[in-house]
Structure formats: structure tokens, C-alpha cells
Specification:
By secondary structure, the protein is an alpha/beta fold. It folds into 4 domains: 240 residues, Rossmann fold (3-Layer(aba) Sandwich), CATH 3.40.50.300; 253 residues, Rossmann fold (3-Layer(aba) Sandwich), CATH 3.40.50.300; 72 residues, no CATH class; 216 residues, Up-down Bundle (Signaling Protein - Interferon-induced Guanylate-binding Protein 1, Chain A, domain 1), CATH 1.20.1000.10. It is 52% helix and 11% strand. The protein contains 29 helices and 19 strands. The strands form 6 sheets. An 8-stranded mixed beta sheet has the order 11-10-13-14-12-15-16-19, with helices on both faces. A hairpin with a 2-residue loop joins strand 6 and strand 7. Helix 26 crosses helix 29. The longest helix is centred in the C-terminal third of the chain and has 80 residues. It is flat, with a radius of gyration of 39 Å.
Amino acid sequence: MWMWCLPHPQRDDQCLIILDVDGFETKEQEGDTTEIRISALALILSNIFIYNSKGTINEEALDKLQFITKISNYVEIRPNTGEERKCPEFLWCVRDSELNLWMDGFRLIADDYLLSILTIGQDTDGCSVSRCLKNLFHRQKCFEFSHPCPEADGTRMDEVLEGKLDREFQMQAERLRNYVLNSELESIMGGHNVNGQMLARLIETCVSSMCKGQRIILENLRDIVLCEKPTVELDKVTAEKGVKTTKVERIVPLTKPSAGSVMYDMQEPVCLIENSASGELRVNQEAVNILSEISQPVVAVAIVGLYRTGKSYLMNKLAGKLRGFSLGSTIQSETKGIWMMCVPHPLNHNHCLILLDTEGLGDVEKGDEKNDSWIFALAVLLSSMLVYNSMGTIDQYAVAKLHYITELTELIKVKSAGGDDESMQFARFFPAFVWSVRDFTLDLKLGSRIVTADEYLDNALKLKHGSNKKIQDYNLPRECIRNYFPSLKCFVFDRPADKEVMKNMDRIPDSGLDPAFVKQAHSFLKYVYSTAQIKRLKGGHIVTGRMLGSLALTYVDSIRSGKIPCLESTVHMLSEIENTAAVTMASKAYSEWMEEQVSLPTETVEELSTIHNRCQSQALQLFMKQCFKDEGQRYQQEFMNSVAKIYADMCEKNMKKSLDISTAIMRDLGAAMQEKAKNGSYAKPGGYAVYVKDMDELVEGYRAKPGKGVQAEKILQDFLENKQQFSQHLRIFDESMSAREKELAAEREKAEVAEQERKGREEEQRAAQQLLEDQRRAMEENMAQLREKLKQDQIKLHQEHDKVLKQRLEEQEKLQREGFQTRVKAMEKQIDSLKKQQKETESPAYLDRILDMATLMLPPQYKLIPVSVKLVKHLWTKFL
């Protein structure tokens, strides 16, 4: 049995201890008695006892649990007279599930299936597995798991990348984790809290009794474990035996992730938008700092509603925590402003789930409805799914309380120039709408027909015929709900528990709540996790955590200055911020990659060019991924200019480094010849022949030296040219040479210098040609990635049109059923206009037009190629 001690992820004052026991069918086991002893010890020590198996739960699976029936040979549980006996929960985890969860045409939940199997398997002799399970464990639950990774069958789980795991399996594992962490179980000592020292005494006592063959009586253990003075001085024994101890440090709730972190799991919320007593809104910088570290796409779920309706409880459930957002149990509102909690998305591991809990609307202590309207509007603007929480039923009173929706046209503008009816554009950018009805006591029936919660909502939002003021007031909020939001969903919840229990909802596990409420809450969580979309801006651009923080700042600044938040202006402002950041980030990445991969000097210009092209392509991908709405490719041009400058600087460094190294090599090799020239070794008969021999050896030695770089031939050319006058002087004064020999030697030297000059020119031309080739490739790479980027933007635009078109078609169908023919015809015009816009954006010509405009905005160096030649010549002449 192995132990792992961890700080409890959700309770600051508790320690989570995980016990992993040896498998029951390994060769190292000593027979059934070892298995039974281990099981008995696990039963005594645990709050939750997890039994792991594969396949299904049938008679054969129950037979493998026979060891449970023999635990009483080692552990005696005597009935208590003064207090209720507390035993652990039994969780049966069925891996690679083959459970047939259908009975009489109905799908069962796993718990019901387990209960049915245990009921069928129970006999009358009192020794069956099912009867022992019910006697030993105070609750039995079942969790089923699909195959974690079918494509990696037979591979160790710790060798399978998390991204390769089956989504359904991950969701099931997260469900088990949430259940275990949220369970509030009594201590194993029957109501007495057990600390680490007490648990150590418990283990020592139990193991000692088992080794002596004594039966363990649970009631007697309490007297031993709960005594004030330890029977054994554990620290002293540990020191004497030289046992290595591991210090477990408290893990502070994460407030700022490390650089490059993928997941962000906050243990407690922070205030995103503060709401002062005077009604002044202000963005909390700490929350903005947290969001600035989140580079993943965000799914933002906000909840709004009247105060004291249980909004925070649903947010905590979505976060997978019992405690988090403050619940409160009095008539006073607990949440002020908008609070935020960021957690990893349970289904999409590259996304961050951001939960926004708003202060209760209609707080009598505040008495400022304008302030409430702004809180509501901000929740709409920042979320991709909006949950409206209300109590009782959806009646006229409940709809009237949602009058904040009717005020959105006065609080939000789509375009800076305005329009005839901007509210018809809201469905493009507004979040999905979910109405949560708490403490619902009615039957879901319309007349005698049983209906779904969605049908109940549709019926509540039906419009009335007529044009008088009363009917207009009745229809207005319903029309806004139906027209502003792209989708509508409804959930009804039974009362979770009685009044006293609900005062401590943040300490009550699901087992202590009404099963119907728990089931409804589970359906709500599943819907939100699976359908809430990534937050997007106008045009379908994905919002990251960093961008969400910028949005909050922009919207609140507009409100504080007395302006109306404008979606179009906000997108433009945000695009400037993000695109500027994209230029900086991508340029920095290119520079760092070049520094890491280039070893100066390079032997050839092609070597540097190859690395440049690779790094530039990768940096361009980074830029394209982050930038959006780069109209006229202004920022793309800025990025390419930045890369061109960095590359030019790198070429300059490469040439300078080569110049320094080549010059140093030439200086070292020529030192001996320089000394001979000074002492006159060459200025005598036969000295020219010695000089020529030394020169040949020097050139040969120079060429043999590696790592000289791209200036090698040019330095040699300069050296030979500089030595021509000295060589000519030696030939003239060398009396041992005939006139003909001097003439031939001069011609040979002249040919050598000419040849070396040719090599230098070739090197220069190759560098110029390579730079032109680099620019050609850069242009092609830019156009290819730009085309791909525009295709993605085209898809996003299509999805945006498709979302609105779907909403309009559904609304048209409702109006048709309700008999509003005039409105149906007006809606038909809108639908035709949407279809026309969608057809235009889907056309290949649409993409070509944008691409042609982008080509006109390319950097000048991609059009004026001769400039490249001038640049190369400038670099060559700068160091010569």
C-alpha cells in the first residue's frame, strides 16, 4: 500500500491522502489472506473505497469480489449504542465499459444499474458479495469509463499524450475527480477529525494486530487513536530508524501562471469589475493581469439574475468546486460587481473556461437600476453564454423583471456610425441564452400534454396580437429575447433541499441534496460544457484571455466616460493592440530563433539563407495566428520590414565576423613571411623563389583553415593584391632570375590575382542573388499564409452569417405558428438579405479581391528588386 499526501485542492484546512494498493492478481501475492488483509486495512483507513475493474458488472465480476465477504475475519464492526457507525463509500469504477445500461426500454444511470445487479445478486444466507457490500459500505456508487485511447491499445497510460485521450473518457475521469473532491464524508473515526499523527497511530495499530493474528475491533481503535498522548513517539522512532521524510508544503492558490503554461486553475475567484457603493464601475488590475497570461481561447459563461437566487452555486458547480464564489445564506447580496474564476475547460483542453458571477439585480440596498443595466450589459458583452437565473416560474412577472434586455439598444452600439435598426445585428455577436428556473414546483405540462423545459420557455415567450400600449409592453421583452440571442435554452430545477440544509450549500455534497435536483444540475453542467462556444468578436475572431481583459477595460472606460460601448470601435481598437503585440512577439521569436540556430560566421550565404527562410516562415505563422482584422495588411508589412531589418543586421554581423576571423587567420599565417621580409631574407639572389614558395604554402594553409565564413575569398583577394607591389620589387632586384623568368612570374601572379578577383565577384553575386531569392520566397510565403488566413476568416464570417440565418429562420417559423403574417414577410426580407451576403462571402471572387488588395500593400522591397542589389553592395563595401 503506497501513500501520497497532497493539499486538498478545494479545502484549505484539509489534507488529501491517496492510498494505492497492490493488484490482487500479481505473482508476488501470498494468497487470499494478503489480499483480504490489504482490503481490510484499506476499508479501515479510507473515506472512499474505490474498486477498479474492466468490462462489465455481472455474476463473474461479483465472484471476483469474494474477498469482501472474508473481511469480517479480520475486522469486527460492533453495533454502536451512542452514535451512528460511519463506514466508507464504495465506488465501483468500470474501465473499458461494456455495461448495458438499458432496462425495459429506459437508459439507467450507472448507480441504478449497480443497485439492480446487487439486488438481483443478493441471497438469504447473509454471505453474498452484494449483501456484504451493503453491510460494510454506507453507500455504493458506480462510474463507467470508455476506452481511454482506442488507437493506443496496450500502451501504458502514462505514455499516452493527454491530447490523444478519448474526450468521453476525460469527461468521465473529471466527473469522478469532482465527485471525490466535492464529497463531504464523516471522519473514519465516527465524527472525530483525524490528523496525520492519529492516522499514523491507526496504521501502526492495525498492522501490528494483523501480524499477531488478532481481530481488529473498530470501536476499540477509537480509544487508541483518539488518546491525547501518542502511544508511540512517531518522530523519535522515525529519527532512530533513519526513515526519510518528505515535507508537504501548502500549495498557494494559483494567481499568476508560469510563462507558457497551458492550463490555469484558480482556486478562488477574483473581482474583475468592481462596483463601488456610489455605483462607479472599475476594472480590477489583478484580474486583468491574470487574464493577460492566458493565451488560450476562452469560453466565457456569465450568470445574471435577481439577488439571492442561487447564481453562485451554479457557477461553483461549473468550476467543479463546492466552495469558490460566495453563496451566502441571508437576504443580503454577497456578490458585488462581476467576479471571475478561470479553470481548465473539462472537455476542450486547449481552452480556458472563464466563469463570470454578477451581483444580484434589483438589490434593494443599492436602488440603482441604471447600474444594474450596465452590469447586465457587461455580462452580455463579455460572455459567450449568458445564464439568466430566476425563481419559481416563467410568468409575466418573471419576464417583466428581465426588462434589462429591452434597454440594450440604448447601452450597446454595433457600428460607430449607427444604423436604422442595429438591434437586428445583435444575434451576430450576443451570447447563447440559457434561462435557469430555480425552485420550480409546477408540472411541465401545457394542458394535458407533457412538454420539455425548452417548450415551456417557448410558450412563455409567445407574443400577443394587438397594438395597444399594454400588449406592446407585454411583447417587447419577449421580442428582445427572441431576436437578440442566437439560441435559447431552458432548465428547471427542483428545490435542492430544505431550508436549513440550503443555508450550508457550500458544504453539502450531492448525496445530501434532492436526487432530482442533482440530476437536473448534472444536465445543466453537461449542456454548458458541451455547447458553450469560444468567445468571438465581430467577424468571428477568437478571443483569448488577454483579449477578454482588454475588452473589459475598453467597455468600462466607455461607460465611465459617459459613452456607449461600440462593438465596431472596440474590435478596431482591439485589433490595433493585438496586431501590434503580434508584430512584437513574432519579430522577437524570429530574432531569438536566428540567434539560437545560426553559428556565426556561416560558411556560405546559402546556409544563413536556409535558416532565415525557416525561421521567417515559423514567425509568420505566429504572427498570422495572433493578428486579426489587419486591414490593408499594414501590420503584416510592419512585421516583414522588422524581419528584413533583423536579417540585414544578421547578414552584417555574419560578414563582420567572417572579416574578423579571416583577417586574423591571414595575419597569423603571414607573420613568418612578414618577419622574413623585415630581416631581408627575400632581398637576395634566389629570394623571390623562396618568397613564391612561402606564398603558396600560406595560400594553401589559409584555404585549409575552416570557419572563415563568407568573406574568406575577399580577404584572400585583398591580400594577394596588396602583395603584388612587394612581389614585383623582389623580382626586379633578384639578379638570379632571367628577364624571361621575371616576365613569366609576373604573368602568373597577375593571373592568380585575376582568378581570386573572379572568385570574390562570384561570392558577391551569389550573395546578391541569394538575397533576391530570399525576398522571392518571403513574398510567396507571405501570400500563401495570407491566403490561408483569409480562408479561415472567410469560414468564420460564414459561420457568423449561418448563426444569424439559423436564428432568423427559427424565429420566422415561430411567428408563422403564432399567426403574425406581416412580421413573417418582414423577416423574409431579412433572411433574403442574409442569404445574399452569405453567398457573396462564400464566392472565390470575394477571396481573390481581398488578396489582390493585399498584394498592392506588400512592402516596397518585394516590388523593387534592384534595391536588394544595392543593399548587398552596400554591405560588401562597408567592410572592405
